[in-house]
Write a structure and sequence with these properties.
Elements (H helix, E strand, L loop, with lengths): L7 H15 L8 H15 L4 H8 L8 H8 L10 H20 L6 E7 L5 H10 L10 E8 L2 H9 L1 E3 L8 H7 E4 L4 E4 L1 H4 L2 E5 L11 E6 L8 H14 E9 L13 E4 L2 E3 L4
Helix pairs in contact: 2-4, 5-6
């Protein structure tokens, strides 16, 4: 199969579909990228052209193809401890605050953290690595670390917990030795079961409400840059609704949602809190 690039009309139709399903705005400069990724699905489905694939994808018969389509289109690039000061805050400020509040009987011994659009899992596992050495300070606690994404493919990678050298480049040597198994020949670092077992993974579209809350802390980083103002506001509203009273929202530097977080108290330019009252 030797297909040319998507025509402008075909590209526009797929972009509209991507936006409708996921809220992601694909810029005109990404036509070649979308063409290349769609070719893989054409080969997998044995279809003869982009228009035929679009017709199949949007028909009742193509419902099972939609997750594979989204797996190809959504871009996922991350690594452990991206924006390391966020994880320093989590380990040095947030976790001690939660422990002290429970000790003073101001909150139950529960902790719920959500990594929204978790991609291949490095963000949530970074949180697990900060929590792991502090677990003795949380005896009898019910702790949930939830990672969600729209792509089944990246969630499968997250569950496996195996990463290349680049993904773990900011992880300290002592952490690698303690919490990872290393395969030098394959140049892979696989998290030990004790860390993988701390995480729960679930398919979720950010345009839909999150029903598993409320959460004491939500991370949403380096994803909303791909959304327009309307879909960003929808996502932000869902995030705010998912926060427990007094819960924290951690946002990435490129999200462009600061003007949409009105109900939340600004702590830092990347950290917001829902009022406790």
């Amino acid at each position: 199969m030797n297909l040319v690039e998507l025509t402008a009309e075909e590209f526009e139709r797929f972009c509209h579909l991507i936006y409708k399903v996921s809220g992601i705005k694909v810029p005109p400069t990404k036509r070649v990228m979308v063409s290349n990724r769609l070719r893989r699905r054409l080969r997998a489905t044995n279809l003869n052209g982009f228009s035929e694939y679009y017709a199949f994808l949007t028909s009742p018969a193509g419902a099972a193809e939609m997750p594979h389509f989204l797996d190809e289109i959504t871009t996922n690039e991350t690594y452990f401890y991206r924006d390391v000061h966020h994880f320093d805050w989590f380990g040095q400020s947030f976790l001690p605050e939660m422990e002290q509040a429970a000790r003073l009987r101001r909150r139950p011994k529960t902790l719920r953290v959500w990594s929204a659009a978790a991609s291949t899992g490095e963000e949530l596992y970074s949180l697990a690595l900060r929590l792991a050495p502090m677990r003795p300070q949380f005896p009898g606690w019910q702790i949930t670390l939830l990672g969600t994404d729209i792509s089944n493919a990246v969630l499968a990678t997250a569950r496996a917990g195996s990463y290349d050298d680049r993904a773990v480049r900011l992880v300290k040597v002592e952490e690698r030795q303690r919490y990872f198994d290393h395969d030098p020949a394959a140049q892979r670092w696989t998290l030990k079961p004790e860390i993988r077992s701390m995480a729960t993974w679930k398919l979720h579209n950010l345009l839909a409400p999150m029903k598993d809350g409320p959460f004491d802390c939500v991370f949403i980083k380096n994803v909303l840059i791909y959304f327009d103002a309307r879909s960003k506001q929808t996502v932000v509203n869902h995030l705010i609704e998912s926060l427990a009273k007094g819960g924290y929202l951690v946002v990435g530097p490129t999200e462009g949602v600061y003007s949409m977080l009105g109900p939340l108290e600004k702590i830092k330019h990347w950290l917001y809190r829902r009022p406790a009252a």
